[in-house]
Design goal:
By secondary structure, this protein is mainly alpha-helical. Among the domains are: 85 residues, Methane Monooxygenase Hydroxylase, Chain G, domain 1 (Up-down Bundle), CATH 1.20.58.60; 121 residues, Methane Monooxygenase Hydroxylase, Chain G, domain 1 (Up-down Bundle), CATH 1.20.58. Helices cover 85% and strands 0% of the residues. The protein has nine helices and no strands. Helix 2 packs antiparallel against helix 3. The longest helix is centred in the first third of the chain and has 58 residues. GO terms for molecular function: actin binding. This is SPTB2 protein. Keywords: Actin-binding, Repeat. It holds the Pfam family Spectrin.
C-alpha cells in the first residue's frame, strides 16, 4: 500500500487516497505501540541469568529487525503522504485554473451580449453594473495570482512533468489578458455612450430653455403705463443677461461634439440638432434685442403721454384761472 504509485487522477480521488492513507497511518501508529511492547517483552528473555530458552543475540537481532522494519514503514508512510499532498496541491492547482477559465468564459459571454444602452438612464445602470464587475475582476485577479504562484512552486519542486502545468498557465494568462482587453474596450464604449447621452440631454435642456425664453422675449405685452412698462423692462434685462450667459454654452456645443466618439459625432441627427440650437439661440438673442428696444420705445411714449398730460393739466388750471379772473375797472 505504501509503495503504490497511484497518486490520483483528479482532486476527489487524491482526497480519497489521503483519507485512506490517514487510516493506514493510524493503523501503523497502533501497531507501533504493540511492536514496542512486544520488543520490550522479548528483550527481557535476552537478559535472563542461568537458563536461557534462546540465544540472546538471536533475540536482539530479531528485535532490531522488527524495529528497523517499523521505522522503514514509518518512512514509507511519510514519503507517501508527502507525495499525496504534492499530488493534491497539483490537482488543486488544475481545479482552480479550470474554475478561473470557467469564470473567464462566463464574463466573456456577458461582455459579448452587453449593449451600451439606449438612453442616459440605461447607460448609467450598465455603468454601475460594469463597476461591480470590475470589483469582481480585481478579486479574481488576486486569486488567480495566488494560483499562478502555487503553480510556480509546483514547478520549482520538479516532482511532476512541467509541460501540462506550463501549458495551462499560458492558456489562462492569454485568456485573462483577452478578458481584460475586452473589459477595457467595453468600459470605453460605455464612457463614450455616457458622454453622448449626457451631451444629448444637456442639448435638450438647452433647447427647452431657449424655447421658453423665446416665448418670453416674443411677448406682445409692453405695459399699459409708465410704471408697468418699467417693471417689464427690468424683468427683460434679467432675461437678456441670462441669454448672454448661455452664449458660451451654445458656442461650446461644437467643441463638445468634436470630443464625442466618431460613431456618435458623425450622426446626422446630432449635427442637425446642434445647428438647430445655434439658430434658435440666434433668434432668441435677436428678438430679445428687439423687445428691449420696443419696451424702451413704449416707455418713452408713456413718459411723453405723462408729460403731455401734465401740460394739459397746467393749461386747464391756467384757463380756469384766467376765466375766473375779474378785471378791475380802475
Amino acid at each position: 500500500l505504501l509503495v503504490s504509485k497511484d497518486l490520483g487522477k483528479h482532486l476527489l480521488e487524491v482526497e480519497d487516497l489521503l483519507q485512506k492513507h490517514g487510516l493506514l497511518e493510524a493503523d501503523i501508529s497502533a501497531q507501533t505501540e504493540r511492536v514496542q511492547a512486544l520488543n520490550a517483552a522479548a528483550l527481557k528473555f535476552s537478559e535472563l541469568e542461568g537458563y536461557q530458552p534462546c540465544d540472546p543475540q538471536i533475540i536482539c537481532n530479531r528485535v532490531n529487525h522488527v524495529q528497523t522494519c517499523l521505522e522503514e514503514l514509518g518512512e514509507l508512510a511519510g514519503k507517501r503522504r508527502k507525495e499525496l499532498e504534492d499530488s493534491r496541491q497539483l490537482w488543486t492547482f488544475f481545479q482552480e485554473m479550470e474554475e478561473a477559465e470557467a469564470w473567464i468564459r462566463e464574463k466573456e459571454k456577458i461582455l459579448a451580449a452587453k449593449t451600451c444602452g439606449r438612453d442616459l438612464s440605461s447607460v448609467l445602470t450598465l455603468t454601475n453594473k460594469h463597476k461591480s464587475m470590475l470589483g469582481e475582476l480585481g478579486n479574481r485577479r488576486a486569486l488567480l495570482h495566488q494560483t499562478m504562484k502555487r503553480g510556480e512552486q509546483i514547478l520549482a519542486k520538479k516532482r511532476f512533468s512541467p509541460g501540462g502545468i506550463q501549458e495551462k498557465m499560458r492558456e489562462v494568462r492569454l485568456r485573462w489578458k483577452k478578458l481584460e482587453e475586452v473589459t477595457g474596450l467595453h468600459q470605453q464604449r460605455l464612457q463614450e455612450a455616457l458622454n453622448f447621452f449626457q451631451f444629448s440631454a444637456e442639448t435638450d435642456d438647452l433647447v427647452a430653455w431657449l424655447q421658453d425664453t423665446y416665448r418670453i422675449v416674443s411677448s406682445d405685452d409692453f405695459g399699459h403705463d409708465d410704471y408697468s412698462t418699467q417693471a417689464l423692462l427690468r424683468k427683460h434685462r434679467v432675461v437678456v443677461e441670462e441669454v448672454e450667459k448661455h452664449r458660451a454654452a451654445v458656442l461650446a456645443l461644437r467643441k463638445q461634439l468634436a470630443l464625442l466618439a466618431p460613431e456618435h459625432r458623425q450622426g446626422v441627427d446630432i449635427q442637425i440638432r446642434v445647428v438647430e440650437v445655434e439658430q434658435l439661440y440666434g433668434e432668441v438673442a435677436e428678438v430679445a434685442v428687439l423687445r428691449q428696444q420696443w419696451l424702451q420705445d413704449a416707455l418713452a411714449v408713456y413718459r411723453m403721454f405723462s408729460e403731455v398730460h401734465a401740460c394739459e393739466v397746467w393749461v386747464d388750471e391756467k384757463e380756469q384761472w384766467l376765466e375766473k379772473m375779474e378785471v378791475p375797472e380802475e
